[in-house]
Amino acid sequence: MERLYRKLPPDVEAAAHNDVLCLKCHAPLGIHQPELKNDAVGCEACHGSSEQWRTTHYLNDWKLLDAAGKAQRGMCNTKDLVGRVEMCAKCHVGAPGMEVDHDLIAAGHPRLFFDYAAYHEILPRHWKEREEASFPAKAWAVGRLTAAHAAMELLHHRAHDASRWPELSEFNCYSCHRRLPNEVSPPTNRTLGALGANEWNLALIDVLGVDPAPVNQALQGLASPAPKIAAAAGQLRDELANKIRTLSPQQFDRAWAKELAAKLMTKNDAITDWDTAAQHYLALSAMDRTLGSSKQRRATLNSLRDMLRFAPGKNSPGPFHPNQYLETLRQLSWEEPSARTEGSR
Ligand code: HEC
Ligand code: HEC
Ligand code: HEC
Ligand code: HEC
Asked: Using CB atoms within 10 A of its CB, is residue 229 exposed (0-12), middle (13-18) or buried (19+)?
C-alpha cells in the first residue's frame, strides 16, 4: 500500500512505519517517541498525552480537578460525548492533514466507515457502565452530527486548495465505479450521470433536522467550481456546529427513539446504494438497542445486516440490491415488545 501510495521505485523499501501521515492515525505517539510506535492506537491516542498526569492522576488533588482542569494538563475529556466523538473522528473520518484520500484508497487503504454508536459497541469495555438506557439512540444522533461536522470541515479544507481539487473521495464512489445491476435506477436523489456527494457522512442527517442538499448539489460535477463547494461545505459545517451546540442531553430519550424509528421506516427514497442502506441499518439498530429488542425484530434486523456484510476477506461492499433491502424492511415491526423482553435490558 505504502509503495503504491508513495509511488516508490522498486529499489526503495516501503516504510509505512516511518511515514508521518500513517503514524498520525496509526501510532500518533510514535511520531515524536519512536519507541512508542508499537503502541499503535494506545491509551494515550484516546486519553491524551500523559506527560503531565502519568504520576499524579490517581492522587486526590487530581481527582478534585474538573474536566477543564484535566484537559489543560493534557487529558482528553472522554466523558463529554461530543468531545469524545470529535476525538475519534480525527482518525476515523479524517481532518485536514490527516486524510485517507482517493489516492490512498486506490493504493489499497480501506475506506473509512465510521459510525460512533456502532464503534462504541465494539470498543473493548474498560470503563464502569453508567450509561442510561437510551444511550445508543443518543450516541447515534450525536455521532452522526459530529462525524458529519468533521467531514464538512475536511471538505471545506480540500475544496479551498485548488492544487489538489477535485478530491475524488468526496464524491459518490458508485457514480464512477461500476453501478451494480439491481440498484434502484435511476437513483432517486441523484440525476443519472451526475456525481453527488460521498453520502457516508451525510446520510440521514436530515432526520436530525440538518439538510445536506446544498452540499450534494454543489458536488454534482467534477467541474463544479471549488469555491462554491467550499462555501456550501462551510455553511453546512456551521449549521451542524450550531445544531450540536444546542442539543439537550435529555432530548434523545425512549420516546424520541420510537419516533425516529417510525420516521426511518418511511425513508425508502433515501436508500439508493450500499452506503445509505448501511447507515439506515445502523440507525435502526441503535433505536432497537434503545427500545429493547424482540426476537422477531432482531431476526429481521439480522437479515438486513447480512445483505450489507462484506464478502469474506474483502474490505469493501460487494453487490447490493436496494429493492431486496426495502422488501425485508417492510417486515420490521416496532410494536412494543412483551414486558419480559423489555425487562431484560
Ligand atoms: C485519517 C487517519 C488515517 C490515515 C492518515 C491512515 N490511516 Fe490507515 N486506517 C485508519 C483507520 C481509522 C483504519 C481502520 C478502519 C476501520 O476498520 O474502520 C485504518 C486501517 C488501515 C489498514 C487496515 C488494517 C486492518 O486491520 O485491516 C491498513 C493496512 C492501513 N490503515 C495502513 C495505512 C497506511 C500504510 C497509511 C499511510 C500511507 C495509513 N493507513 C494512513 C486511519 C488512517
Ligand atoms: C489516533 C487515531 C485514533 C483515534 C483517536 C481513535 N481511533 Fe479507533 N482506530 C484507529 C486505527 C488506525 C484503527 C485501525 C487499527 C488497525 O486495524 O490496525 C482503529 C480501529 C478501531 C476499531 C476497530 C475497527 C474494526 O474494523 O474492527 C474500533 C471499534 C475503534 N477504532 C473505535 C474507536 C472509537 C470509538 C474511538 C473514540 C472513542 C477511536 N476509535 C479513536 C485510530 C484511532
Ligand atoms: C479507542 C479509544 C480508547 C483507547 C485506545 C483507550 N480508551 Fe480508555 N476510554 C475510552 C472511552 C470512550 C472511555 C469511556 C469514557 C466514559 O464513559 O466515561 C474510556 C474510559 C477509560 C477510563 C475511565 C474508567 C471509568 O470507569 O471511569 C480509564 C481509567 C481508561 N479509559 C483507561 C484506559 C487505558 C489504561 C487505556 C490503554 C490500555 C485506554 N483507556 C485506552 C476510550 C479509549
Ligand atoms: C470521479 C470518478 C471517481 C470517483 C468519484 C471515485 N473514483 Fe475511485 N477511481 C477512479 C479512477 C479514474 C481510478 C483509477 C485511477 C486511480 O487509481 O486513481 C480509480 C481507482 C480506484 C481504486 C483502485 C482500483 C484498482 O483496481 O486498483 C479504488 C479501490 C477506488 N478507486 C475506490 C474508490 C472509492 C472507495 C471511492 C469513493 C470514496 C471512489 N473510488 C471514488 C475514479 C473515481
From this structure: buried
CA distances from 303 to 26, 102, 181, 275 (A): 33, 31, 21, 17
Cα 40 to Cα 54: distance, rounded to the nearest angstrom: 19
Ligand 4 within 6 A of CB of 176: yes
User: Cell triple for residue 292?
Assistant: 429493547
Q: What is the pLDDT of residue 50?
A: 63
- Tell the burial category of 252 from Cβ atoms under 10 Å away from its Cβ (0-12, 13-18, 19+): buried
- Mutate which of 36, 39, 43, 85 for ligand 3 pocket (most atoms within 8 A of beta carbon): 43
Question: Which tens digit of pLDDT belongs to each residue from 213-245?
Answer: 999 999 988 888 999 999 999 999 999 999 999
Q: How far is the CA of 253 from the centre of ligand 2 (A)?
A: 27
Joined together, the cell numbers standing for residue 308 give 450489507
pLDDT in tens, 28-53: 877 777 776 676 777 888 887 666 65
Q: Does 84 sit in the ligand 3 pocket, CB within 6 Å?
A: yes
Q: Please tell me the distance from the alpha carbon of residue 142 to that of residue 116, in angstroms, as a whole number.
A: 8
CB 291 within 8 A of CB 258: yes
- Measured CA to CA, the distance from residue 46 to residue 88 in angstroms comes to 8
Say which residue the cell 476525538 belongs to. Answer: 87
CA distances for 9 relative to 3, 17, 251, angstroms: 8, 18, 56
